[in-house]
Specification:
About 20% of the residues lie in helices and about 25% in strands. With about 550 residues, it is an alpha/beta fold. The chain has 3 domains: about 100 residues, Alpha-Beta Plaits; about 300 residues, Peptidase S8/S53 domain (Rossmann fold); about 80 residues, Macroglobulin (MG2) domain (Immunoglobulin-like, Sandwich).
């Protein structure tokens, strides 16, 4: 199998509006047809339950924007409604009718109008720039640690494999991925279970409207695969049994403030349907219109609209895992927004050995808040290629964030009575440099099993003996797969004997402590019949099983 290394590759599907876009803020929500006493009118049961369990009140910011105000604006000119934000009490519209636009400022219920996207401009940045492209060859004869395969090291760095071994794989946790598109996600074998089991709960396009997100950019597909992908024996995501809402907010054909407002609309939708976690592998610093650029001073967690919205989402009981950004080696260097938001878990990138990734954006936030908060594997991260469906390598904090998202989902599943704030704190406290955070990795590398163990007293017990756990297929035609559980890191010898006791095959292999998948091929060259498979460990212990070759 070929493993390809990339850093967030980009094949944009461009869409341009020929109109400018404006953000219109309202003064109040007076005379609303909705009431905080009847939240089921505008929030799902799961969203209400999240608030109730966390002791969070339903307040005016939860009420939808006054529809009378929206209608009054729309009939005032040639305006098209793009988004509505209940949290910020505002709408986004598209128009080239500037004359009518000026009249809106005279309305008593309008507090402000700002331009968030001008007429079509040249795209001057590409946030999904491909900056690395090399290839590695991997021999599939033996993939250690079944069923994790290539994913094992990036999970084990955080003891996330132990959580999955205990059965915590994100079941019942609802995750919203806000991204640029999910090209071919519904066609990939590695994501088949997610779709077949009905764990894609909804899809929404906040750029072009509608519900279809599978023909747009592939970035979200790769992000989803880091969490939910599964190829038994080769790859396991960080929360392969979680459920998902796939939301598109990023227009890769441009970079404008409007995309921050798209994100806000997506986050509000995610809140309303009851998500537990939002993953955002997006961030904003500079725009095609340089007058809209953020400065470092803006990244104080309280200035940009997207950071304000992220903090509101956290206040509603949602855990937000946000990419730090990939500017560590650039002149900018710092994190992007909403990674600066006070209440989000901002994730830097390391390799599978825990070494800081040179491209990972650094902190602190402009208000000296510790950012990034933690780090996960985002340098040579194993994931699923959207165009081939094979395991590939990708680099970027775009992948460290979903690694953390999935692990947070498993931890939250294991501690269901905790709030988002408590889960975030447990993650930080379990991290490798909690007592001495820095601007590169924040509190460091979380150990999610330690977080779980300290809360529950559960101790992870390793196997005390070597066993053959599974052999397949039965009967054998060509390839024989052996799931071997090893008590230690050791060398083994695999022998195949005929029924008469004659030695037919002898193969030496090195295995790691835990589950290993061993593959023997060309067994079709053996005569049909029964054979004894023996595995002798380095300590001289022998375990056997019987196979039938046809």
């Amino acid at each position: 199998m070929k493993i390809t290394l990339v850093l967030i590759i980009c094949f944009p599907f461009c869409f341009f509006s020929q109109n400018s876009s404006f953000w219109i803020s309202f003064t109040d929500k007076n005379n609303s047809q909705y009431s905080v006493n009847q939240p089921s009118q505008f929030l799902s049961l799961k969203s209400i339950e999240r608030r109730t369990n966390a002791g969070i009140s339903i307040v005016a910011s939860d009420l939808p924007v006054n529809e009378t105000y929206i209608d009054s604006v729309l009939v005032s000119g040639d305006f098209a409604l793009l988004q509505a934000s209940k949290w910020l009490n505002a709408i986004a519209i598209s128009t080239d009718d500037t004359i009518s636009l000026n009249t809106i400022l005279n309305y008593s219920f309008v507090s402000n109008v700002i331009q968030v996207k001008s007429l079509k401009q040249d795209k001057i940045i590409d946030k999904f720039e491909d900056i690395a492209n090399t290839k590695n060859e991997i021999n599939l004869l033996s993939i250690p640690h079944y069923p994790y395969g290539y994913s094992y090291n990036q999970l084990a760095l955080h003891a996330a494999d132990k959580m999955q071994d205990l059965g915590f794989k994100g079941q019942g946790i609802h995750v919203a991925i806000i991204d640029a598109g999910f090209f071919r996600a519904n066609e990939l074998l590695a994501l088949e279970d997610v779709f077949d089991e009905g764990r894609i709960l909804s899809t929404r396009d906040f750029v072009n409207g509608g519900e279809s997100v599978y023909e747009d950019h592939q970035h979200g597909t790769m992000v989803l695969s880091v969490i939910a992908g599964s190829i038994d024996g080769e790859f396991k995501g960080s929360a392969p049994l979680a459920s998902f809402h796939l939301l598109r907010s990023e227009d890769v054909g441009s970079e404008t403030l409007l995309e921050e407002y798209n994100w806000i609309a997506a986050a509000e939708y995610a809140d309303s349907v009851g998500v537990d976690i939002i993953n955002t592998s997006l961030g904003y610093t500079i725009f095609d219109d340089t007058l809209q650029n953020h400065t470092y001073a803006d990244l104080d967690g309280n200035t940009t609209v997207i950071a304000k919205a992220a903090d509101i989402a956290a206040a509603k009981g949602i855990l937000l895992c946000i990419s730090a950004g990939n500017s560590g080696a650039s002149a900018w260097q710092y994190i992007s927004t909403p990674a600066d938001a006070d209440s989000v878990l901002t994730v830097a990138a390391v390799d599978s050995n825990g070494t800081y990734a040179f491209f990972s954006s650094v902190g602190p936030a402009a208000d000296n808040d510790i950012k990034p908060n933690v780090a996960s594997v985002g340098w040579n991260t194993y994931l699923i290629a959207p165009f081939t469906g094979e395991v590939m390598l990708g680099s970027g904090t775009s992948f460290s964030a979903p690694m953390m998202t999935g692990m947070a989902a498993c931890l939250w599943q294991s501690l269901p009575n905790k709030t988002n704030v408590e889960i975030m704190r447990l993650i930080e406290e379990s991290s490798s440099q909690f007592s001495n955070p820095d601007s590169l990795l924040g509190y460091g590398l979380p150990n999610v099993f330690d977080a779980y163990s300290k809360e529950t007293g559960v101790i992870y017990s390793l196997p005390r003996e070597d066993i053959i756990e599974d052999v397949f297929p039965v009967p054998v035609t060509d390839l024989l797969n052996i799931i071997f559980v090893s008590s230690i890191n050791q060398g083994i010898v695999i022998r195949i004997y005929s029924e008469k006791g004659d030695l037919i095959v002898s193969v030496s292999e090195t295995v790691l402590q835990g589950k290993n998948q061993l593959v023997l091929n060309q067994l079709n060259e053996l005569p049909s019949g029964s054979y004894i498979v023996e595995i002798e460990s380095g300590e001289g212990n022998r375990v056997t099983t019987t196979i039938v070759v046809i």
